[in-house]
Amino acid sequence: MGAYIVFIDESGFLLIPPVRKTWSPRGVTPIVKHHLRRNRLSVISGVTVSPQRRRLGLYFQIYEKNIKQPEVIGFLKHLLRHLRGKLIIVWDNGRIHLGKVTRYCQNHPRIIVERLPAYAPDLNPDEGVWSQAKKSLANGRPDNTKDLKNHLVGTLRGIGSSQRKLRSCIRRAELPHFLK
Fold first, then answer.
1. Nearest to 41 by CA among 169, 158, 162, 142
2. Would you state the torsion angle of the CA atoms of residues 91, 123, 125, 121, taken in this order, to the nearest 10 degrees?
3. 89: left (phi > 0), else alpha (psi -120 to 50), else beta?
4. What whole-number distance in Å separates Cα of residue 65 and Cα of residue 13?
5. Positive or negative CA dihedral for 80, 83, 87, 90?
6. What is the model's pLDDT at position 172?
7. Which pLDDT value is given to residue 33?
8. How many domains, in total, are found in the chain?
């Protein structure tokens, strides 16, 4: 049996919306109204490539606090429960992936860790997931973290259920050989 390749990354989402291009009447500056609250959600996700490299998947977990090593270990446990065979974990050299997380990976023979080069987030297809998720929030205004979470869950499920959207993340990272 082959190994799943799992590209993992973390991101944060604020109640303050990301601003993108928008329209307004000529000479009128567009105004995006929002609540000035810095509440946030943190998300960890993994884009998976099946051993036969035919199917892509997306796994994610959302937290109302910053993601630390226990949450990363929890996500790895989640992946081990849902994916059979070995997991080749590909992620950056962030401090969150060291220490206890490194020891956890070393103690689980199904996990093989590959690290991306420093300052190369464009090589991780999971960055494409964040780009799509943040684009869906652009110029919007969730009223609270519950609304933000509901929006994120819907958006991430939509990305995860679309092979086309997941493949675009792989292509964006210039890893097309995973699609053959």
1. 142
2. 70
3. beta
4. 11
5. negative
6. 87
7. 62
8. 1
